Every structure is written in structure tokens, then in C-alpha cells.
């Protein structure tokens, strides 16, 4: 069974305690966006086979949304982190690179990610 | 002849597997069964084909078959990463029905059901189609209303289904417990023409027919890249070398996103694990298929006597073809209340398959941003029942370059245009 540690309350939660919420870090497209951008935001998904960042809610715990880095091909969990981050923090990237040394992030670094 | 058709030997011509008949059995009985041919050849790929189909599961093979049969296109290769029918075709619970709520779904699934009815004769291969009847249990008031609505919709679509009350249901399924405290059975949606077929035989039958038409089925051949030029497909790179093609059909279910990425586009698909389990064989006790969507379980008895149980999907993306224990527990716990006699059965096997889920739980049969590339995916948890209809519609799409009446509502543009074919309420749990 999948076990994730809630970054807010610190509880090691089993899958049955959690609610999955799909791909993380989607950038919302507002009224100013084009049809293409909105379609992309609304429907297209990376559906990565390998490293995947996703949203989870500690539904039967503190009730908060958090983010997790997980491997969809091996079910390994690289770590969980706060939902108030623009992209995964450095310690998650390091955990991923322990397993996949060549893995490259597809975001540009911004301030505030490691504040968690 | 066919004895030389192992991998590594290029077949000069396709072997004819010979027609199966009572006379063939008699002839072979007289010569110690030494004359049976392999059902399909295993050639090395040529440099180029008119059509390359990726994925030798039911949908890919059916696409190839109807390309040959309906459009006379036999310059076709079907390439497969693993073995033929080793993905979801060999992992589903073999249920066939067409009692869908929305018109486009009813049309394509009922086309599939009609083709299944004559598939054994059509392919000269026994797919063991068994129209034993199928019931979807209503165990909440919402389901009662939902299924009655589906019955009305089906009657308008020309798909015969009926609402059955608990008493009739008990006659159809004597082992059912109608008044479970948590999940009372309030009635059911009954499709008499629904049932099951032998899933492997469907793949094998199509494969044999395709091979007999001269098509190449190439197993253990993984696609590593898609070559495009000026927005048009040119070739696929595979573990067995480059294979040129005019048209490329992607029919790979759970790995559709990965293949689309190679061609440079994204799909509204997420891959999750769906699992099933099967009990030890017991004497015949249930001669219909029963689906209980409230509790995420469905039950039928195989010809071998095993109780075949389908469960729910994981909520998270997963490519491991493994199920989760708690889903098994949840499914079995609920089914035991409705079918108390299965409580002491031992389970023999449990397995998972990776299904490709779309947001509206309807499939995608579509052209793509790349010219000459067509996708057939998104069948999610219910692809097996659709195989012949899916192949029929996909062959039309690939041959003409545009969808026919069965496929046109299932295009990728439906997401952009907000024309969903919403089956998530009617069928999102179990197919």
C-alpha cells in the first residue's frame, strides 16, 4: 500500500487515508488565455511513466492538500512537500537524482520553492 | 512451411493456417495431429509498410483485420512491445455489453456486440462468445433512477435492455442476497444479449486472420521513436530497426501518452491500474454476469468454473500492472454481502492492467496534430467489449483519413469544444 507522509501534520498516512488529486503544478489559464492554452491546462496531462508530481489531500487527517513526488513506474516515493510551492524543492530533486542521476527538472528555478 | 516461421526467418509468403472445421479435425486425427499449422507467422519487419499499427492487443489487431477486410489494405504491420494480447486484452474480465447511456457510445458498443455475435464464424476461430445475459445491480435510489433512465435511452437507441425488479433478479441470479443491510438490491438493468467471450481467443482469432491476409505481426518490438517530417509521419524507430510507414495507428491503451510524446503531442489521458481476481473453480452457480457498481465489483463464472471478480481502479497514476490490496479487500467485502456463498472461496490469482482514462470516460478515436497519425485509446476500464466495433471504426478512420459515423463523435476536438460523451456516471466505475 502506498504510504505518504503529510508535510503539514507529519503523519505517515496510508493510501486509504488520502484522496488523490491528479497532476501538480498546473498553471491556471484565466480569461486572457487562448483556446489552445485553456485546452492544454484543462485536459492535457503529462501522465509520466517515471517521476510524477501530484496533488494529494490528507482527507481523513488534517484535511489539507499537499504535493508528492512519486515514481509511477516503480511506485517509489521521493518525498512530499507543501502545496504552497511554485515547483518541487531542492531536497525532492536530490532524492530523485539519487535514483535517476540524469533526471532533469522541466521548470526554471524561482525564489520561494525551498521555503516550503 | 510454417515450421520455419520462427523469429529470424523471413517468410517468403504468409503461411496459410488452413481452415478449421470438423473435416480438419478428422483429417488430423488420422495423421496424429502432425499437420496443424501455426496460427500466425512471426516475420522480421520489412523496411516499409503502408500502415503500421502499434499495439497487437484486441483493438490493434481488430483495426488491422477490418483494414484488410473492409478496405483491402493488407500492406500492414502490427508491432507489439511484449507478446500478442499480453496487455489489457489478456487481463480484463471478458464482459461484453452495450447498455450505454449516450447515443455515440451505444452506437459503437452495440456495433461491437453485433460483430461479436458472428465473430467466431467470421474469423473461423472460436472466440467462445457466450451471450448469457448481464445485469447491473441498482443498490441505491440514485442507481435505480440512473438505470431506469438508461433503459429508456437504450430503447430509443434500439438497444434492447430492461429494468428488472428484485424478484425477477432473484430468479435470474439465485445466489444473490437481496436484502443486505448495507447494499440492498433494489433492481437491475438487464441486457439479455450481453455476456462474455474468451479474451485470448479474440486476440488470437484476429491475429490468425490478419496473418492469413499477409499482414505482419511483429512481437517483442518496442517503439523507441516516431519520425516526422513537415508535420507528417515518416517512420517509427523500433528495437528491431526503422520501419517506414504512410500511416501510423497508435493503439496502445495505457502507454498512449508515452507514444504521443514521441510524436510531439499530448493526450487528455491518465494511466491507472485496474485489477481483477479469480477464485478456485466451483460447480456452475451463476449463468449471468452481474455488475455491482456501487461497491466497485463485478462477478461472472468462467467456463472453467472460476468466479471472475473485477475491482476498481487506483486513484493515482500507475504503470506497474499491479493492484492494491485494499481495493481487493473493498471489492470482496462488498461482494460477499451480496453473494454470501462466495465468502469461503479461495482466490487463485490477482492481477492488474494499466488502463487509459479520459475525463469523460469515453474513448478517443481521432486524427492527431501529426498528419498520418491516428489514435485509438481512452477505452479505460471497458475496452474488451468494444474490440470489434473499435477496430471497425478505426479501420475506417485510418483508411479514409477521416472518421466515419461511428468514430466522429470520439475525436480529440471534443475536449476543446466541450462536447463530452459523459459516461462517467453511467459506467465510470466498472465496464
Automatic annotation (TrEMBL), chain A:
Pfam families: SoxD. One of its GO terms (molecular function) is sarcosine oxidase activity. This is Sarcosine oxidase subunit delta. One of its GO terms (biological process) is tetrahydrofolate metabolic process. Gene3D superfamilies: Folate-binding superfamily. It comes from the Bacteria. It comes from Paracoccus homiensis.
Automatic annotation (TrEMBL), chain B:
Its cofactor is FMN; FAD. PROSITE patterns: RHODANESE_3 (PS50206). GO terms for biological process: tetrahydrofolate metabolic process. GO terms for molecular function: nucleotide binding; sarcosine oxidase activity. Its EC number is 1.5.3.24. Residues 50-95 form the Rhodanese domain. It is found in: Cytoplasm. Keywords: Cytoplasm, FAD, Flavoprotein, FMN, Nucleotide-binding, Oxidoreductase. It catalyses: sarcosine + (6S)-5,6,7,8-tetrahydrofolate + O2 = (6R)-5,10-methylene-5,6,7,8-tetrahydrofolate + glycine + H2O2; sarcosine + O2 + H2O = formaldehyde + glycine + H2O2. Its main location: cytoplasm. Coiled coil: none annotated. InterPro entries: FAD-dep_OxRdtase (IPR006076), FAD/NAD-bd_sf (IPR036188), Rhodanese-like_dom (IPR001763), SoxB (IPR006278). It is an enzyme of class 1 (oxidoreductase). One of its GO terms (cellular component) is cytoplasm. Belongs to the SoxB family. PANTHER family: FAD-DEPENDENT OXIDOREDUCTASE DOMAIN-CONTAINING PROTEIN 1 (PTHR13847:SF287), SARCOSINE DEHYDROGENASE-RELATED (PTHR13847). This is Sarcosine oxidase subunit beta. It comes from Paracoccus homiensis.
